[in-house]
Amino acid sequence: MQQNMLWNAFGNLVYLGCQWLVTVFVTRIFGLEEAGILSLAMSISAIFQTIALFGIRNYQVSDTGQKYTDGTYMGFRAITCVIAMLLCMFFSYVNQYGARQMGAIFWFMLFRLAEDYSDVLHGIAQKNGRLDIAGKAFILKGIIIIVMFYLGCHVTGDLVITLALMAIGSCASTGLFDLFYIRKYYCFALKEKFKKCLLLGRETLPLCVYMFLQSAVSATPKYLLEKMCDTSILGAYSSIFAPALLIQAAAGYIYSPFVVPFAGYYQKWERLSFIKLERKLCLIILLVALGLLILGGIFGTYVLRFIFGEAVYGYENLLIPILFSTIISSYLTFYGMLEVVVRDFKGLIIGCMVGEVLCVIITPFLIQVFGANGASYGLCIGAAAAGIYLAARLRYKWKGVKQC
User: Fold this and answer.
1) How many CB atoms are closer than 10 A to CB 96?
2) What is the Cα–Cα distance from 300 to 170, expressed in whole angstroms?
3) Separation between Cα atoms, residue 371 and residue 81, nearest integer Å
4) 51, 83 Cβ separation under 8 angstroms
5) What would the DSSP string read from start to end of 68-131?
6) Is pLDDT at 401 greater than 70 in this prediction?
7) Residue 138 pLDDT > 80, yes or no?
């Protein structure tokens, strides 16, 4: 478990760090206008990425009874990736984005889809106690995207072409490393009956709705900020938001390896063990978040100016609200994972729907009053409401259950 956690955490940190470096380079080399286009592509693709993922990773890993085969999960992921791309581009067309925006959205969506297909392969590895494979794969992907970004930036000097090279490199990494490496250890068929994939999709549809709504809670404030303000402000906000994602990423690395233990406790109705582990992880996440929050308050302004240069001058006050919103979002994701383990799909959908409705209603007013910080405050309110509801549902789920 410890070795898996270390490999997974290190690999993901390298991968996210490389993606963050891309946002830094775009801001410094191309300027806030192009950074805004990249941020738009990242936000739009993140929403439709949830359709590709369909929320089945935690379901897949906690499927200890082998209700569905590895081939079914792989085949279903291929179907959802195609659907996600089509819906993403249709949404972009309806919103009448320009040619450069459409191009950036398409290539970044393809980049995400390569990552999404790796996700189902890493789920197979995790079920078999080899989450270290995921960590190694992410290290390779991180190196590839930096190399591709460098080539695109210095050879063409065009953001859209650079994103295209990154997407192609990520697809190659998924096909040549992830798929090949997983096949060396586990035997499964690449093709599975379409009917079984549909059965999996029907059963996990509530998870897809939940993931879509959860992603919308995070993306809606940025979407509204882009609609109400200019692209440069969105570029500055997103550039500062990127380092804050380390909090959410660190939280995910802490609790994601414990999906299987949580599932085991729930199947055996070991309520006290489940709650004890839940509280322990909540405390660890809080301590990590507070540490990063203190560091951000002390050194944040200097670090942002050092990294982004003059582009972020005047926007440093966005950092602390962004950090708070990221911490709250981390708890929402954590309790969403626990609700998946206990198979409370109805609670997942209702909770995130409440959060999304609050975001849509409150965020425009907050942006008018507080400017770009209003997007962070809107995310705080929406994520907090959803997280509190999910925590209450989890307590209700365990109500009356006796310790075995």
Assistant:
1) 8
2) 31
3) 36
4) yes
5) S-HHHHHHHHHHHHHHHHHHHHHHHHHTT--HHHHHHHHHHHHHHHHHHHHHHHHHHHHHTT-T
6) no
7) yes
Q: What is the pLDDT of residues 347-396, one digit of tens each?
A: 888 998 999 999 999 999 999 998 889 999 999 999 999 999 999 988 88
67 touches 214 (CB < 8 A): no
> Using N-to-C axis directions, what is the helix angle for 373-398 and 271-308, rounded to 10°?
170
Q: Rounded to whole angstroms, how far apart are CA atoms 352 and 84?
A: 20
Q: Give the pair of three-digit tokens for residue 70.
A: 């590895």
- Contact, 302 vs 353, CB < 8 A? no
Find, among 257, 261, 324, 335, the residue nearest to 290 by Cα.
324
Express each pLDDT in 148-167 by its tens digit: 998 888 888 888 999 999 99
CA pair distance 245, 302, nearest whole angstrom: 18
Q: How far apart are CA 299 and CA 308, in angstroms?
A: 14
- Which residue in 9, 84, 7, 101 sits closest to 49, CA to CA? 84
* Residue 342 DSSP one-character state: T
Joined tokens for residue 305: 């100016």
Q: Which two tokens stand for residue 194?
A: 């379409």
DSSP 168-222: HHHHHHIIIIIHHHHHHH----S---HHHHHHHHHHHHHHHHHHHHHHHHHHHHH
Using DSSP's 3-state secondary structure scheme, residue 144 falls into helix
